[in-house]
Specification:
The structure is a homodimer. The first copy, chain A, has about 650 residues and is α/β, with parallel strands linked by helices. Helix content of chain A is about 30%, strand content about 25%. In chain A, the strands form 6 sheets. A 6-stranded mixed beta sheet of chain A has the order 11-10-9-12-14-13, sandwiched between helices. In chain A, strand 1 and strand 2 form a beta hairpin. In chain A, about 55% of the residues are buried. Chains A and B meet through helix 3, helix 4 and strand 13 of A and helix 3, helix 4 and strand 13 of B.
Chain lengths: ~650, ~650
């Protein structure tokens, strides 16, 4: 018989026992923690590549450290019995201090533009409500049926085919208020019947389901007005911070796919509760839901196997738009809604990209425009009304603070801006002592360090041999775990019991992340044959983009070298596009045409991409400033 | 606190304890029995109008007999502590001998014509199978999706909108046998995908769900050949023998409606198991199911409230054809099937009637024809291609043996034929001593008793005052429970411990039952203005019709007075029609046209019907023989 061991989880702060779990000997401590309901994050997807799942053994025998433990946590921490719980088999009864993810209070998610309204867009959501006065059948000789009496009060284009749900509710409702009934149709199909007059209550929800964040918006479908907005961290994150980790988690395992699906659908249900409560409307009056998201999130929401989305050639199971009754998904809190998924382009170019295009109108643009979505799994769109190109640009979790030693999300305590003169000055979210650095801080720090000569264009930290550096800056360069690091905030000023560092490895991670995006931009420019100066506008979208210092982003070559006035942050374009598809069936059908028209460029299959990527990893390029100067001259000339 | 009592149910034969049930004092013993899983029949719907639910108290205190107990069971039985369990509150702990319905072995249900085959009908079931060789997507640049690869191998009319079920199964199946896949479509919608070649396995099932009996037929949809047939008593019968009882049982009570629905759907699932096993085919290869039945059975199968079908003007909730995925109904044993319900005409004229019309082709007939379905809830159709009339003709359970003292279904021990010369000679199903009389026996007995003068045209049993009667016959007229009765089989020859009787009341029941049908026939003749002699053919359908002696049926005025060669038994026309709609979408759409065209005559709303009904109750009419004779003369003249 397999031996079992008991693991006691304690609160690392107070030592209070949180849970005890008996598991077969050899089980991973991470799994035991998750089963016990302790949401330890596993950002790298249990590959021992990050520190998010670390725990500390308080008592009991534990397994010797693995190579990953030592690499990620360092020799010292390993001696203090810190371990990566994803790499840690339970060998005997033990007591473990588990660190659930930091509180997300103050976590910055851009939930909406804050100003969404239908504006110039015509409202044609496809949802119509009719307050009718129908009679129950009266004549025994010339028989009709309940539904025929209803249909006789509705426009002739109303479908005669009914759902069982409507038929099952019909007889009671028809007779409840002497036939005074409100009937709701979506695309001429009856989807709801209610006693009395509710014809003015027509609502819809738009959701952008991202890898990291999920945002939603409750909209009045009569006026297009946004009534409430909601946002949260994607609750699947504990199963992996990036898409590939989550695909790997559920690969060829229907039960785990179901786990991921239940997590996100529960979140959407909660959103509906929160938003409708905020706006004082009934969830039963939500009739249309539009969901956008990357291919993986799209498939998971629908319960479709993502196994092959994670294997070359990364093919989706379905790309066409999908419309299903909420009850089938199920999104139980909006029982009467039809849920519309916008179409997909490719395995790593999802419905969110299409929504972004709808929102930014690139597909109608006269001049060449560039849309960059900086997210865990970013995308780049380049083109105009004549031709549209798209590629996937997977930055990974670096901009979310993943795989960075003191990286964290944009929450209280995160360094978000950096200034360097003869010393370093950090701006921290919430004005508290710094405990880490978030993605926007990382970009800003790198730009300023590059400018000050703390790092060189290849990303190497300053060494004595290079030349002089102000003393206070050079003193900040220290040894750390066998590598080198730059002290952003010394220990005595930091909010943790050590200095807040930016390691050489962190800088390499940033280079890989930004090269994924800028390499994609360069590749699309090459395919389309468009030099930098021909790009009329760069649009940065996505929740993260709002916090990025555009000048710094250009300085480190995350964005192309264009005059700053040509670069705009356009907000959460995916959500905006979803909202447009929500209030307009014309926009929703436009999405299908765009998806069929856009050309997908698979970077990995392009021989030339390798060189482009190596180039894109560099922080600056000889001659860059010259190009900008020349262009400004050219502009001045054409204006004259 | 309410007092509880324990009821112990014992086997009336062996005294073995079957079950013990603790219930609140005052609960009805019938309910306790049903809850304990003992299927005591309640043919009259708990109204104390029949004897089907009788039990015997073996020990313990019981309530005094009700008026119904005494009327139905007689003084003697009540003294022996027999009771109607539907009228019997449990007052104290007791032991009850419960009599579940007699074994139905040998019960005659006409499940099919035995000879059904597509014949001249063209096969266009709407189901198509395609064995294709699809490739999983290969090119990372020009992305497609799994479903697009499948669609590229299918006819262009195939719908691009897929069910979640198909999308969820697709990725694994596409890659299982290197893309060698069989795709099944119904009306151009993909409904199944399988690995390998199964293109020759296309099956369907037709069901006729009657109030009393349920029959089914498994058909090969490539050839139209019937592969297996199944039949059973409708398992809802314990909640009432006739429709009104079942409607009353579930009226305004969703849970009880659900009980009825679960019973019938379980039965259909069992049928699918039995039939597919008999024919050695997989239930997964059933792709189309056609269900016909009266309005009540139709609604119950679909889970639609029947409350108002039971109240004037008896309006259905829906009359249009309904098509639903089997999984939605659910009929779980045929997970891939689409279930088609034929249309309905009125609350008491259901899809079974439409199916009967399709099968008998009255709607295309040049001359006037009459279709009579003799069932618990019969229907009458009269007309031709020019005009079609229909009415409901509820005979009640009499022909099934209900509400008749020694009535029983057509099982072993039932008198099915009667001959009378100077004495009575009974033919018994299974050639055993008689234990009761079935519907066909009842009709035959009445006809022969009428002919012999044992009853008069008004249905009165012979009395001394009327005139002489052969001694052996007059000796058979006895007193019984305050009324009079005719001994069909004396006690010493019978299979029960008493004589098998036909009481005066039984004859009255027969008159009411046959008048319901013949009154309907006369009413439709009057509305259409058609004298008897203009009816070219009388078609008798329904399971029961097969066993009826047509001559006797005419003799007692159950059918119109026409030459016998014009009267035909056409089998279970409802099932045949369902089979035709199964193999032919043309027939299925024809059903809709017929349903829209046919005129419903509501007997209860017609002033003149009262007189017609009184007339129809009589066994013979002065001048009847004369009419027939005249007609024969006319025929002879026209032939000459």
């Amino acid at each position: 018989m397999a031996k079992t061991v008991a693991i006691t989880f304690v609160d690392p702060a107070g030592g209070r026992i949180i849970a005890t779990k008996v598991v077969p000997q050899g089980s991973m401590v991470l799994d035991a923690a998750l089963e016990a309901g302790i949401e330890v994050a596993a950002t790298c997807g249990r590959r021992g590549r990050c520190r998010s799942c670390r725990v500390k053994a308080i008592s009991g025998e534990i397994a010797p450290p693995t190579l990953q433990d030592t690499l990620q946590l360092g020799q010292d921490a390993v001696h203090e019995r810190f371990r990566l719980s994803c790499q840690m088999p339970a060998v005997a009864d033990c007591s473990i201090a588990a660190m659930p993810p930091k509180s997300e209070a103050g976590h910055q998610i851009l939930s909406d533009m804050g100003v969404f309204s239908a504006g110039e867009h015509e409202i044609d959501s496809g949802v119509r409500k009719f307050y009718i006065h129908a009679k129950a059948p009266q004549d025994e000789n010339h028989q009709t049926s309940d539904i025929e009496e209803i249909l006789s009060c509705l426009p002739p284009e109303t479908s005669r085919e009914q759902t069982l749900d409507v038929l099952r509710r019909l007889p009671t409702i028809l007779r409840a208020e002497l036939g005074r009934i409100t009937v709701t149709t979506f695309r001429n199909q009856i989807i709801d019947i209610e006693p009395g007059d509710t014809s003015e209550r027509i609502y819809g929800m738009a959701f952008d389901v991202g890898t990291t964040s999920v945002v939603g918006s409750l909209v009045d479908l009569r006026t297009g007005e946004q009534l409430a907005s909601v946002s949260a961290v994607n609750p699947q994150a504990i199963y992996g911070g990036d898409l590939m980790s989550r695909i790997a988690y559920a690969q060829f395992d229907a039960k785990k796919l179901q786990t991921l699906r239940a997590r996100i659908l529960n979140q959407l249900n909660e959103f509906i509760d929160t938003a409708t409560e905020q706006a004082s409307v009934l969830p039963e009056h939500i009739y249309k839901v539009v969901i956008v998201g990357n291919t993986c999130m799209h498939h998971i929401c629908l319960g479709i196997d993502t196994s092959y989305v994670g294997l070359a050639p990364y093919a989706p199971v379905v790309r066409d738009p999908v419309v299903v009754p909420a009850s089938e998904l199920p999104i139980k809190r909006a029982p009467n809604a039809r849920v519309c998924f916008l179409p997909i382009v490719a395995g790593f170019v999802g419905a969110d990209t299409i929504a972004g295009i709808i929102a930014t109108r690139i597909h109608e643009s006269e001049g060449i425009r560039l849309l960059v979505d900086i997210g865990t799994n970013g995308e780049v769109v380049l083109g105009s009304k004549d031709r549209l190109l798209v590629c996937s640009a997977p930055a990974g979790p670096t901009f979310e603070g993943g795989q960075v030693k003191h990286g964290m999300r944009g929450a209280v305590g995160a360094i978000e801006k950096v200034a360097i003169d003869d010393d370093v000055h950090c701006q921290v979210i919430g004005d508290v002592p710094a405990i880490g650095i978030c993605g926007s801080g990382l970009i800003d720090a790198a730009a300023k360090m590059l400018d000050a000569g703390v790092i060189d264009p290849a990303g190497r930290l300053w060494r004595q041999a290079v030349g002089p550096l102000p003393e206070k800056l050079s003193a900040r360069i220290i040894k750390d775990d066998g590598g080198r690091a730059f002290v952003l905030v010394p220990r005595d000023e930091s909010g943790r019991d050590e200095a807040v560092l930016l390691t050489q490895n962190d800088i390499r991670q940033l280079q890989l992340a930004k090269a994924a995006i800028y390499g994609g931009v360069m590749m699309l420019q090459q395919v389309l044959g468009v030099p930098d100066e021909s790009i009329e506008e760069v649009m940065m979208s996505g929740g993260f983009g709002n916090y990025v210092n555009i000048e710094s982003a250009v300085a480190i070559r995350l964005l192309p070298p264009l005059p700053l006035e040509r670069i705009n942050y356009v907000g959460n374009a995916a959500l905006l596009g979803a909202q447009l598809a929500l209030i307009s069936e014309t926009e929703r059908s436009r999405a299908f045409n765009i998806a069929r028209r856009i050309e997908h460029v698979a970077l990995a299959t392009r021989m030339e991409f390798q060189d482009i990527f190596v180039d894109a990893c560099r922080f600056s390029k000889p001659g860059r400033r010259r190009v900008v100067a020349e262009e400004q001259t050219a502009n001045a000339a054409s204006t004259a």
